[in-house]
Amino acid sequence: MAESSEQKPDEPLIDITRLCAEQDKFARERDWEQFHSPKNLVMALTGEVGELSEIFQWMTEADSKNAGSDPATSQAVKDELADVLLYLVRLSSTLGVDLNEAVAQKLLKNARKYPAEKVKGKSKKYSDY
Amino acid sequence: MAESSEQKPDEPLIDITRLCAEQDKFARERDWEQFHSPKNLVMALTGEVGELSEIFQWMTEADSKNAGSDPATSQAVKDELADVLLYLVRLSSTLGVDLNEAVAQKLLKNARKYPAEKVKGKSKKYSDY
Amino acid sequence: MAESSEQKPDEPLIDITRLCAEQDKFARERDWEQFHSPKNLVMALTGEVGELSEIFQWMTEADSKNAGSDPATSQAVKDELADVLLYLVRLSSTLGVDLNEAVAQKLLKNARKYPAEKVKGKSKKYSDY
Amino acid sequence: MAESSEQKPDEPLIDITRLCAEQDKFARERDWEQFHSPKNLVMALTGEVGELSEIFQWMTEADSKNAGSDPATSQAVKDELADVLLYLVRLSSTLGVDLNEAVAQKLLKNARKYPAEKVKGKSKKYSDY
User: Fold this and answer.
1) For chain C, which ranges sit under pLDDT 50?
2) D58 touches chain B (CB under 8 A)
3) Which terminus of chain D is more exposed, N or C, with fewer CB under 10 A?
4) Which domain holds residue C61?
5) Which residues on chain D are in Cβ contact (under 8 Å) with A55?
């Protein structure tokens, strides 16, 4: 697969072809397409991020780095990350957005917005937004 | 890359190898790894989903399906979807979670939890959670 | 209590004195003050808003207006609204923010930002943010 | 107004009468009632919690306790807390939910769910949800 050391410009940053196809099939077989408006999917995505947040809310930052050490927590984290990804991919699909293209554009914007020499070691402060 | 028409079981549902590598490099060059605890990244993900929600909050469901027709809205949507993906991938990376494996497991769980013949045409009601 | 028709400038828009006191006592009795940093409480608030979102995600707007007609949904909605309020009040308390003053300031800002004659019948478009 | 020192059982935990009236008037004058379905307001609430999250995302817990010390951050926090409250109160109003009653019920539930002697000094673990 892609080697970051020899990034050809036409190699995708992500490839979600198969997941997209699986999800389209899953929704179609259940006649769930009627519920999957972008507006509804944004709310579903919100719900999943909320569940992810609940897992981490009382952890210290240090604890959060070791979230994988407890099997139950680790499994819960994996499930929620997957749920976020599933709704994100489904949402992009219903909107006709090519996530690989969108993320490639955003990386370029971010590189211009945050030049390494200028922001090194500094987190964004609210006043900079 | 994966062909959905001949899904071999060992073909990935998603491939994010290159994006992961790009993000690791981006964070390292800016000395931002110190800020990227899973706890912090969950909050950053929340912020991006909030921005996505703001775009769709006053739209009807029908409007949301046409969010791509207005160029400014379309670009905003792409940017926010990319931001959600970026933080999701970075979060998974810091947690050492293989997103492809996590999503494959979740699809199997969902297939068992929602048998097509049983849930056809029905959205989940809150009382079923 | 306050009559909006004779709004004296010193009458509060909200009074949360008793709730604040109850929550301080609740946290103190459980030795939970150690977990209630503003950062953690923002994440807890996120979790509750996520649960609220899950209730409404597959509803049409019309359905959402009748969310009170099904007893189970109605009770779930009340519980989640209460949870959001509880964390919001607790968060404000730990930050030393006077919510009544904050909301009074914000109403003035909003009145200036959205003059009735200018925004009448128009929802904010994303490009206006 | 309520005196926390002599809590009569029929005294409200919160009183939002005036804020509710102000908001109803604000929406009516702008003909914004048409946009304020519960579904839409949940999304607007999500957006505001996302903005709150963005303020705190890179702060340590210790920093978050001192969020009031920087004037710009402090003002931003107040504005976002107010926005969350505004949408929460508006949402409850459109749903016909009495927030004071809802929160009183929830406090009783929480007291039963988390007996002080049992949960003292322990944060909820994910596996307990």
Assistant:
1) 1-7, 126-127, 129
2) yes
3) C
4) 14-116
5) 126
